[in-house]
Amino acid sequence: MAGREQNRYAEILLSCIEEKYFKDEIALEHHSFARIISGEMKVVQADRSYLFGPGDTLLFPGNQLSTLIKNPKNGLPYKAIVIFFRTERLKEFYAGNPPHFTQVNNDRIKTYEKHPMLESFFTSLVPYFDLESELPEKIISVKIEEAIAILRALDPNIDNVLADFSQAEKINLVEFMERNYMFNMNMEKFGHLTGRSLTTFKRDFKKAFNTTPQKWLVQKRLELAHRQLSDEGRKPIEVYLETGFENLSHFSFAFKKHFGYSPAVLGFKA
């Protein structure tokens, strides 16, 4: 189905955020292909950040822990067209179109320069969001195939991402958590991303860190925030979202409780 708002079942949707900002921690199961129409989206990952604006096109590989901060800008809401590549559709596509794997392979977000094929494709989707009824399945299938075909024409390495159907395995928990602790995911999601059930995740975590996940995560996030405030000269209002806290007041309270002084003591106002 096609959707106008965030919808976990939609394969083609128009995301529109009119509030001051929208923040979410995600690890999407499926790859997503997006065009930013208006507003701004900041993507914070463990080792880098991205900033996307109007006209930017990106491919977001699945199962990557990321913080998304979406903001209206210049009087316009945040608006983006997003296509989700579900595994079943990708398998069906590649069954008739054998993948070409290359030696270059990474899981980073891919960005694409403006191109007539991209402009034509996203423009063709806009009228569908005015429909009062669901978009016919046949059209969804055709448009998703078109998107994959365009990406394959523009990116010789894209099959390494889209045609990789390997299952997630149990990975090194310590390495994963040290790399991704700043993302405010629930314990079930952390467990899933490390290839564990919730019970196994908590058990393995206790064995590795000798404490509970909740206590360890709060401490690590506060230490990260402290470094950003003291070493990088950032303000509390700039760091709390990127270090796993839901709001500024909770961050300030937790910071003072842990360090014995408020973030303002470092010379910045909240």
UniProtKB/TrEMBL annotation:
The keyword Transcription applies. PROSITE patterns: HTH_ARAC_FAMILY_2. SUPFAM superfamilies: Homeodomain-like (SSF46689). InterPro entries: AraC_XylS_family_regulators, ExsA-like_N, Homeodomain-like_sf, HTH_AraC. Pfam families: ExsA_N (PF22200), HTH_18 (PF12833). Residues 171-269 form the HTH araC/xylS-type domain. GO terms for molecular function: DNA-binding transcription factor activity; sequence-specific DNA binding. Keywords: DNA-binding, Transcription, Transcription regulation. This is AraC-type DNA-binding protein. It comes from Pedobacter westerhofensis.
